[in-house]
Amino acid sequence: MQSVGQPHSFPYDVFISYSRSNRAFARALERALRNYRPPKDLGEPYRYLKVCRDDSDFIGNDYDQVVEEHLKNSHKLIVLCSPEARESQFVNGEIRIFARQIDRIGARTRIIPILVAGIPNNEAEPGQEDEMAFPIALCEVIEKPLAVNFIGFDPGKDRVNKGIFRESWYKTVAKIYGIPPLVVEQQEKRREADVYRIRMGILSGVMVMLSLLLILSLFSRFEARYQRDLAIKAQKSESEAKESEKSQRLLAVNKVSEAREQRNQAIAAQNLAEKRSQEALRQRDLANLGLNRLYVLNTKQAGIEFEKGDLRRGSQLLNNFLPTFEKREPDIRSFYWYYLWRLNHNETATFRVNDGYVSSVVFSPNGKILAVSGGEPDEPEEVRLYDIKSGRVIVTLKGQGLWTSSIAFSPDGKRLATASFGQDKLGRVRVWDANNGKEMLTLTDNTSYVWAVAFSPDGKILASGEGENAGGGQIKLWNMGSGKEIATLKTQTATVSSVEFSPDGKILASGNSNGSVKLWDTSMFSELGILKGHTGVVSKISFSPDSKVLATLGSDGLLHLWDLSGGKVMMTIKQQSADLNCIAFSPDGNALASGDVTGRIKLLDVKNGNDLATLKGHSNSVISLAYSASGNTLASGSFDGTVKLWDMKSDNELLALENQAGAVWSVAFSPNGKIMGSSSGDPSSGIPAVINLWDMRNGKEIGKLKGIEGIISSVAFSPDGGTLASGSMDITKSGVVKLWDIRRIRELATFKSDIAGTATVTFAPHGQILAVGWTGATGKVGEVMLWDMRSRKEVATLKGYKGNVLAVAFSPDGKMLASGEGRLGKAGVVRLWEVKTGTNLVTLEGHRDHIDAIAFSPDGKLLASGSRDRTIKLWDVESKKQLATLKGHMGKVTSLSYSSDGKTLASGSSDSSVRLWDMRSKQELATLKGHSGDVGSVAFSPDGKVLVSGDQHGKLKLWRAATKRKVAAQCGCLKK
Predict the structure, then answer these.
(1) Which of 58, 261, 405, 921 is 20 to 30 A from 815 via CA?
(2) Least confident window among 195-199, 653-657, 786-790
(3) How crowded is the C-beta side of 167, counted as CA atoms within 13 Å?
(4) Which pLDDT belongs to residue 655?
């Protein structure tokens, strides 16, 4: 299979395959494509498209060989679909030849169906087979093709890229370039607007010129008449001639003045149009800035709400910026939004059931199906059976009452029992076929609310718990073979709020509204005893898998664990911050899950009552929990209308990075983000200097680089990831730069400087040059050296500094180098150098103290500098002007790092904090706390999803954000 290259690597951009009956449209499409150049702002090569169409491009007798060669040389294939094309052996053959070069995923992006006649095959009804338009070969490659619609195109009067077919033209161009149609449409409209402005300018100029020509023409005609009259009236006096000449001169001056006025009016109109255009752009920028500020305020407040424990309010603020497929606005979200989302969404997937609530969830015995009940207030509820793997509804059980109070699977998973009631206050118990959703039994003898149902472990008996009636609460036992009632167990005046059989089948327990729990011997259905310990309704009960412990949850806020061998409470847990709604034992019996009104789920260690974990993600009360039989998955239902699945097998957090000794001075990611290097140690305190290499996939250390004297102040990876550079000061107080082979974990080379001092290192984007900034020893000023990585020799020295060079950074294109300078008792400056010539382009002044950190934005338009004056300054690289000053740190700014999308700037400081700044509004987004000492270094991973920070106590913290795919799976509102 031919590898898929970029569009510019193919001789042809597109190949048009068509039936000869569609030749006229094919020619019109070819002309439009050959004459098309994309707008310059589209980000595509600014050239005409290269089109291959066999009507003119194929020469020679060996047709098949020529076709195959042209198809291989084409990046994308346009198929003109019609009933004639469907039957054409040439069209089908060309599709199959092209398909052999690509996989099925590539087919969806590289084959572009265009419907010119007939109907899509999947829309054809019986009798319309002759009208089907999609060729058989196309359907073999793409199961359900989505075609661009050009039905009704008339070559005689229609144009492919104009009129009613303009939107179809945009879609076609978008598919060729592999970008959204809306982007093409917006850029084309912008280009049309630019063309319109230019034409208006030209038209205005033409109008002025025509006016001048008209004036000159009128003047000439008048002059001719004057000469004729002068000849006829030769006898007139000389004084009259002079007067006439004077009059004509004044008239000419007036005409010229009038022409100038008209020209000035045209210029004024053009200036007004330009001002209005600029004002429109300014208003758009203000609108974007307003949205940005709203985003910053919402996201900052969300962080505050989460810290206070208000998950509902925090989630609402985050959800304000969830994207949808209906709105094509750009993703305004930045690292901090995704970071907050990950902290407060631990689930693996979300099913959005409805806009109301979820009242109950339960797994089938094999764990493949999840039964969910729920609905909207005052509307009949439904029970839906979800396939866990796909998340799709496979069966819907209708006909419930207003409230489905309980659902239960039979042990073999073939039946499902539901308890419900309606406005008539009569409970109904139904038994359903779990495979097809058909009702098997309706148990109608209930005279009041039914709150709970439970199958016996052998599946032969179904127990239902009822509310109070004339004779008090009761449990009814039903024979599942006959559907007949076999016994009624009375609970006096208490409502039966929950029932459950022990896993060994020997005990039936009921939780009651008077705070008691009754135990029944299932062999004779005689009462075993009463457990008293709650002062409110016992809303939920759950047996441990070994049947030895019973957990009971009451409305009094107490969770009791009972030792059933002695009938005594072995542990009581009182929820401090919120009321509990539901509980569930894990299948191994080691953990008990509980859901509360705030939307949190806590996992408790059954042995000691300690918290094992807190699961956050729901924005309203969690009212139902269920473990799968394997214990790998926990399902939760909530009043927020969602069901969430939680992975119980593993902790998805990155492991803590350990074995750091001494202060962390510098951190850096490899270009692919798989390795992170951190330098640490303090020889003055007896802690050797070392560089640790970490595998970011599992948090494990994969190597150490040793043998370095002094503090390692700077580390940097080469662009290919194979080399690591380190800068330090050795024991003799001279600066040292070492190069390390990352793959073999060994030293490659050592550079030293005569001026001594500490070294700061950074690679140029192309990797051929290493820039080293030297602080300079006592009595000497710093400088920047450029080293060639192939020859390992110095190629240039940037001089002219008046103090120490404390930070260096290359621009993304490698053409400029920025350096931060500091002088004792003097203001710090930033110098910009042209790398090619070594020329100092500009010196940026504004800081009041040493500059310790420098960073270019990913697009190279901004430069950030951090100083000991506690501020960060942002500079416009093109204009060399200061744009903003970011204030907030209470100590010196030691390190800066941009996220890969350029939306966020992270800063580390001696005030023990890491701060995040929004680069669009130039405002602080958040302060990340957790360090107890100076934060000496921060760095974003290349994908912008992980931020690492190191402090003086040797602690490395990883701040990880959720991915877009994870958000889509968890929010339950986006397509997967």
Answers:
(1) 921
(2) 653-657
(3) 4
(4) 46
> What would you measure as the largest C-alpha separation in the chain, in angstroms?
149
Q: Which residue has the tokens 């059933």?
A: 564
In the predicted model, what is the mean pLDDT of residues 448-475?
Answer: 80
Distance from CA of residue 107 to its chain's centroid?
A: 25
Q: What span, in angstroms and rounded, lies between the C-alpha atoms of 690 and 674?
A: 20
If one compares 892 and 329, the residue with the highest pLDDT of the two is 892
Residue in 806, 818, 815, 903 with CA at minimum distance from that of residue 855: 818
Distance (Å, rounded) from C-alpha 516 to C-alpha 527? 13
SS3 assignment for 365-404? CCCCEEEEEEECCCCCCEEEEEECCCCCEEEEECCCCCEE
Q: What distance in Å separates the CA atoms of residue 962 and residue 959, rounded to the nearest whole number?
A: 10
Tokens at 952, concatenated: 């003086």
Q: What is the pLDDT of residue 244?
A: 77
pTM listed for this prediction: 0.62
50: which 2 tokens? Answer: 């290269």
* Contact (CB, 8 A) for 756 and 766: no
Secondary structure (DSSP) of 638-653:
ETTSEEEEEE-S---S
Q: What per-residue confidence (pLDDT) applies to 267?
A: 84
Query: CA 543, 372, 561 angle in degrees (round to 5)?
Result: 20
Q: Is the pLDDT of residue 92 over 90?
A: yes
Q: Are 885 and 873 in contact (CB under 8 A)?
A: yes
pLDDT in tens, 906-940: 999 999 999 999 999 899 999 998 898 899 999 99
- The number of angstroms, rounded, from the C-alpha of 715 to the middle of its chain's C-alpha atoms is 30
Instruction: Quote the tokens at residue 64.
Output: 């098949």
| Token code pair at residue 369 | 């199906």
Number of H helices, E strands in the chain: 13, 60
How far apart are the C-alpha atoms of 885 and 198, rounded to whole Å? 39
Tokens read off for 29:
């499409």
Q: Binning pLDDT at 50, 70 and 90, where does residue 161 land?
A: confident
Out of 23-27, 486-490, 720-724, which region has the weakest mean confidence (pLDDT)?
486-490
State both tokens at 227.
Answer: 């000469």
**Mean pLDDT to the nearest integer, 303-321:** 83
Q: E strands of 62-110, at which residues?
A: 74-81
Residue in the block written with tokens 């190949």 = 15
**3-class secondary-structure state, position 457:** coil
User: Counting every residue, how long is the chain?
Assistant: 976
Q: Hey, what amino acid is at 742?
A: I
Do 917 and 925 contact (CB within 8 A), yes or no? yes
List b or e across 612-648, with b for residues whose CB sees 16 or more CB atoms inside 10 angstroms: eeebbbbbbbbbbbbbbeebebbbbbbbbbbbbbbeb
Reading phi first (left if > 0) and then psi (alpha if -120 to 50, else beta), residue 437 is in: left
* Cβ-Cβ contacts under 8 Å for 829 (sequence gap 6 or more): 821, 843, 844, 845, 847, 851
